[in-house]
Amino acid sequence: MKEFLLAFLGSFCGGIIFNIQRKNLIWAGICGGLSWTAYALTYEYTGGIVFSTFIGAVVVGLYSETMARILKTPAFVFSIPGIFPLVPGAGAYFTVLYIVNSSYSDAVNKGVETAAVAGAIAFGILFTTTLFQFGVRIKERIGRND
């Protein structure tokens, strides 16, 4: 519960920074809390950082697309703050730290991991957005054929 609350606050405050409307701030915070919860549960069972991040990003995408349709607002209003808990800031920091300390093999390892996590975030959101768009097109085609 504590982790959900901290992820909620991170996304909520990120929404404030990006000047999201007040009525959407709570929903953006919930997006971050859910994404971190999905990440943490997946990481607990698999131990894979990249896969866990991908699952967290899929949750962000599903939640953002769903809430965008319910609240009639763009999906990025929820997805941008929702990914804040997943962003690999510590990985980037340690990559630079290893470079400064001339530990280049550690820097390469951490840098590749950080890039993979960032790619997993992008791919997870892209995957769910594409699925939603595909579903909308199928629904439109079925509606035209009736």
TrEMBL record:
TM helices/strands, residue ranges: 43-63, 75-100, 115-136
Keywords: Cell inner membrane, Cell membrane, Membrane, Transmembrane, Transmembrane helix
GO CC annotations on file: plasma membrane
InterPro entries, sorted: ThrE_2 (IPR024528), ThrE_Dicarb/AminoAcid_Exp (IPR050539)
Compartments it resides in: Cell membrane
Membrane topology according to the record: Multi-pass membrane protein
Domain Threonine/Serine exporter ThrE intervals: 4-130
GO biological process annotation, one example: succinate transport
Major location category of this protein: membrane
Family: Belongs to the ThrE exporter (TC 2.A.79) family.
PANTHER family membership: SUCCINATE TRANSPORTER SUBUNIT YJJB-RELATED (PTHR34390:SF1), UPF0442 PROTEIN YJJB-RELATED (PTHR34390)
Name of the protein in its database record: Uncharacterized membrane protein YjjB, DUF3815 family
Lineage: Bacteria, Bacillati, Bacillota, Clostridia, Eubacteriales
